[in-house]
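Anyone opening a protein record will find just a pair of labelled lines. A complete record is shown below as an example:
=====
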Amino acid sequence: MAQVLEYTAAAYAAAIYAAIDAAAIKELKMKKYLSLFWLVAVVLILSVGLSAKDLDTKGKAWLDAHSEAAAVNVNGNWHEKDWGAVVLLQAEGSRDVTGDGDGWAITGVVSGKQIFLLFSQKGSVAYTAELTWESDKSLNGSYAKGFMEEKKKNRPMHLIKP
């Protein structure tokens, strides 16, 4: 009987140690996952913060790369079948363009007869467009999600003055 009690006490002690070890392992795993969660959260917060600066940094650099004097003026109300009404404002003699279209704030430049536009919201660039002046009633080119690059799939964009 003493042997059975001794065996039962040993089994009971082993079970307690196993439970404690399992709890400790579970706690370590939870700490690991919590640390991973915080790391991902910090990375996401920083990436959102950095992307919000797109307009001031990458957008400005993209526009500045097109530095020819303006040969045309795109000021006025335009229409694009997918974007609807697009308003472009360009002061006489200036190459800078501002405006809005389809709920996006537009910032851009005219370089020669080329028009380069950034479509942004809250400082983050969502689309870019490169257009060519065809006439005082037609701008033709393409746009892309994010920044235009050679390897990206660009979509056609044709603005007309009604």
Remarks:
- The first strand starts at residue 76 and ends at 80.
- The longest helix spans residues 2-51.
- Residues 50 and 124 are 9 Å apart (CA to CA).
